[in-house]
């Protein structure tokens, strides 16, 4: 499971999950989690949990130098603004979820009652204006953000772009509010009672794009995982080391397994689960759970789960989302990764040859079919999770009916 666990690690506060009044959580502007640097940064005065490495620190230093700011009071303010990229809360300071910013949100004097930031009262925006408004800055980050574009070596003063402090702070000022922080010139400090002390919450590190429905670790126990998309493809991917700055290594055009000709996917149906036999490395056995359409694939044909054994009359069912009752099925099936390559760690692509069909069941409605499959880590049996079959409130009471496989967790023995 090591591969899976590196995706999620623990940083923030449990409050985030449990209460409405949540406090800020650490995240860098590149969507990655902050890290602890072994050596202190030489330019930016940030230590502990931070978002800059030595390379980025040097870049900020060069950027600062190139601004050629002669007034020292303004220079020191500009330096802290550039260095706010290194703050462990930089994602919030730069509001990365809503805007392209080159300047963090500068605290103005308003205080939000829900603020968890201890310095949020400071009117830092006014301070920046007072110290810098009449100072020439080359490639000013303020001008860059206001113009939304790149200017090469152009010099500007704040007064040339904004008529007054008010206009300037309308653009750059902001309050510390629900779950977000604002900048007051130095590292963000939270009220001590809400100090973030791991491990009591989670922080997610974004390592790639795309929407995958299922992820399982490669049974070889490496940092490789299998990722599947609902439409029916499965990829072998390499999870980068935590804090390495790399992204998920996935070869999108070359899937490990392609079941799209068998799988019926729509909002609630598709390839739903993959499970590898505990002895996969020796026997190459693995299992898939997916939905199919009997109109499209001859292999998709099983008994309707609404039948006389469970006291359900299929003629009572009406069509759902344009599909006839039991047109779609749940399938649990076994494949083999055996190939001419003897070492299964080296297999990167397999032909979807079914070895054994475990279950094919017609579905009464088009939603709520569960579909995850897992091997019990201790008993090593295969568990199959089946939804109640859909329809508002399980109208045929399949879940309570012990003769129905719907609404059950089944164990294969
Ligand atoms: C960071 O530096 C400040 C002073 O510069 C110091 O008081 C603090 O203990 C340092 N924190 C860590 C985690 O090293
Ligand atoms: C610093 O981080 C950047 C990405 O943010 C990365 O490209 C670079 O390799 C890192 N440098 C070091 C020395 O770790
Ligand atoms: C930097 O500023 C100084 C005076 O403040 C000026 O003499 C010099 O030409 C400036 N450098 C650039 C590259 O603009
Ligand atoms: C945090 O501290 C500030 C200033 O000390 C205070 O105004 C604010 O109410 C505090 N926030 C919380 C949530 O305690
Ligand atoms: C702004 O700077 C210019 C010189 O660069 C100076 O003549 C002017 O008096 C300054 N204005 C203010 C309000 O400080
Ligand atoms: C901008 O200024 C820097 C430093 O003076 C110089 O090295 C660079 O060539 C200039 N770039 C452009 C596009 O003029
Ligand atoms: C501070 O910023 C907030 C958010 O942008 C705004 O609603 C408020 O009016 C500002 N307060 C002042 C005093 O500028
Ligand atoms: C895969 O190969 C192994 C070793 O030859 C064999 O024991 C196993 O039965 C094969 N698995 C399947 C599903 O054919
Ligand atoms: C199913 O149909 C029978 C006969 O048409 C009817 O008596 C019964 O109430 C129906 N059951 C449901 C759940 O609609
Ligand atoms: C299979 O290949 C992997 C990756 O090259 C290697 O680490 C492993 O030792 C090989 N296993 C066997 C049994 O040859
Ligand atoms: C399902 O169970 C509920 C509660 O026991 C009952 O009221 C309802 O009539 C049952 N429906 C069917 C179709 O058996």
UniProtKB/TrEMBL annotation:
Residues 1-24 form the signal peptide. Keywords: Signal. Residues 223-413 form the Glucose/Sorbosone dehydrogenase domain. InterPro entries: 6-blade_b-propeller_TolB-like, Glc/Sorbosone_DH, Quinoprot_gluc/sorb_DH_b-prop. SUPFAM superfamilies: Soluble quinoprotein glucose dehydrogenase. The keyword Signal applies. It comes from the Eukaryota. Coiled coil: none annotated. The keyword Acetylation does not apply. It holds the Pfam family GSDH. This is Glucose/Sorbosone dehydrogenase domain-containing protein. The lineage of its organism: Eukaryota, Viridiplantae, Streptophyta, Embryophyta, Tracheophyta.
């Amino acid at each position: 499971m090591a591969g899976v666990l590196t995706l999620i690690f623990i940083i923030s506060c449990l409050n985030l999950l449990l209460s409405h009044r949540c406090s800020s959580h650490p995240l860098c502007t590149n969507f990655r989690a902050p890290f602890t640097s072994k050596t202190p940064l030489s330019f930016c005065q940030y230590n502990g949990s931070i978002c800059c490495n030595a390379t980025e620190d040097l870049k900020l230093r060069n950027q600062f130098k190139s601004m050629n700011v002669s007034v020292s009071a303004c220079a020191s303010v500009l330096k802290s603004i550039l260095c706010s990229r290194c703050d462990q809360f930089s994602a919030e300071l730069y509001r990365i979820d809503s805007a392209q910013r080159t300047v963090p949100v500068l605290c103005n004097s308003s205080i939000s009652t829900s603020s968890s930031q201890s310095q949020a009262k400071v009117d830092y925006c006014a301070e920046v204006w007072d110290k810098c408004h009449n100072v020439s800055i080359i490639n000013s980050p303020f001008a860059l953000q206001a113009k939304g574009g790149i200017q090469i070596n152009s010099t500007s003063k704040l007064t040339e772009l904004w008529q007054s402090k008010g206009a300037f702070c309308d653009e750059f000022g902001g309050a510390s509010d629900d779950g977000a922080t604002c900048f007051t010139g130095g590292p963000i400090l939270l009220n001590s009672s809400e100090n973030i002390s791991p491990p009591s919450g989670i922080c997610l590190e974004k390592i790639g794009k795309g929407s995958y429905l299922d992820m399982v670790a490669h049974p070889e126990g490496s940092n490789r995982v299998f990722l599947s998309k609902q439409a029916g493809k499965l990829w072998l991917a390499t999870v980068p080391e935590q804090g390495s700055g790399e992204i998920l290594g996935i070869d999108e055009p070359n899937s490990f397994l392609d079941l799209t000709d068998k799988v019926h996917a729509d909002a609630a149906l598709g390839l739903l689960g993959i499970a590898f036999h505990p002895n996969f490395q020796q026997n190459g056995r693995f299992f898939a759970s997916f939905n199919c359409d009997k109109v499209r694939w001859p292999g998709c044909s099983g008994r309707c789960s609404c039948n006389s054994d469970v006291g359900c009359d299929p003629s009572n069912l009406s069509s759902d989302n344009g599909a006839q009752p039991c047109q779609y099925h749940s399938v649990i099936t076994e494949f083999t990764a055996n190939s001419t390559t003897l070492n299964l760690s080296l297999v990167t692509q397999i032909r979807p040859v079914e070895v054994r069909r475990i279950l094919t069941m017609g579905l009464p409605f088009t939603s709520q079919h569960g579909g995850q499959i897992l091997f019990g880590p201790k008993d090593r049996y295969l568990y199959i999770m089946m939804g109640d079959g859909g329809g508002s409130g399980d109208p045929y009471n399949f879940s309570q009916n012990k003769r129905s496989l719907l609404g059950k967790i089944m164990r294969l023995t």
